[in-house]
Design goal:
With 221 residues, the chain is α/β, with parallel strands linked by helices. 42% of the residues lie in helices and 20% in strands. A five-stranded parallel sheet has the order 2-1-3-4-5, sandwiched between helices. A four-stranded antiparallel sheet has the order 6-7-8-9, covered by helices on one side. Strand 7 and strand 8 form a beta hairpin. Helix 6 crosses helix 8. The longest helix has 16 residues. It starts with a strand and ends in a 5-residue tail after the last strand.
Length: 221
């Protein structure tokens, strides 16, 4: 799951960034409104975590701009403004959720997963393609009834493919999901992770579309 964190408080932002990454998410952290706006124009995100008091362009202005462009991203406002009127205003401006500071990191992670599930139309956390099941919350994978132990990058790669089964994702799209715009992967990093992933789940699950990218397909026993 790829997140944009728009938070100008250095200590809080650092803690959120670290905690979300430890939960297996890819995070791009920006500290002002214009940079957040530029990131949303150039990248695709599953969830935006949005502080209201951003310099340059405040969170509510950014939210209005985002919804006027009809960009497909779930938005959670994360703010110290805890009055009912503030929460109502944020939700009416187009936020999908509103979390007040201070908060528990585990609650933040759970809410992010819930937002992503609603966006994808999945009431339950499990992603299923045939006999392959992935739980992004517990970071577990089952093939049939057997657990599959994956390295963190392998898990994230499989999750990206399972979110859109049958859709072809380019190497650049997969790099963005795994590393974010601040990452610097080696030139063949995705191919290496795909190689190891195929060895663990079977090569038939992931197809190479020559010159385009990769897609996940259902394998019939």
């Amino acid at each position: 799951m790829k997140l944009l964190l728009a938070e100008d408080d250095a200590m809080l932002g650092q803690g959120m960034d670290k905690g979300l990454r430890q939960a297996g998410m890819t995070v791009d952290w920006v500290r002002d409104g214009p940079t957040a706006q530029a990131a949303l124009q150039s990248q695709t995100y599953d969830v935006l975590l949005l502080d209201i008091g951003l310099p340059g362009l405040d969170g509510l202005q950014l939210l209005q701009w985002l919804r006027s462009r009809e960009l497909e991203v779930a938005v959670m406002v994360v703010s110290a403004r805890d009055a009912v009127s503030d929460r109502i205003l944020g939700l009416n401006q187009g936020a999908d959720d509103y979390l007040t500071k201070p908060f528990d990191l585990d609650e933040l992670v759970a809410r992010v997963h819930a937002l992503a599930r609603r966006r994808q139309g999945r009431p339950q956390p499990d992603m299923r393609v045939g006999s392959l099941v992935l739980n992004p919350v517990r970071r577990e994978v089952l093939l049939g009834d057997e657990p599959v132990l994956l390295a963190p990058r392998e898990f994230d790669l499989l999750a990206a493919l399972m979110e859109q089964p049958g859709a072809v994702l380019s190497r650049e799209q997969l790099e963005s999901r795994l590393y974010g715009w601040q990452g610097e992967p080696s030139s063949n990093a995705v191919e290496v992770h795909l190689h190891h992933l195929r060895r663990k789940i079977g090569s038939d699950w992931i197809k190479n579309v020559r010159g385009v990218g990769y897609k996940l397909v259902e394998v019939t026993p």
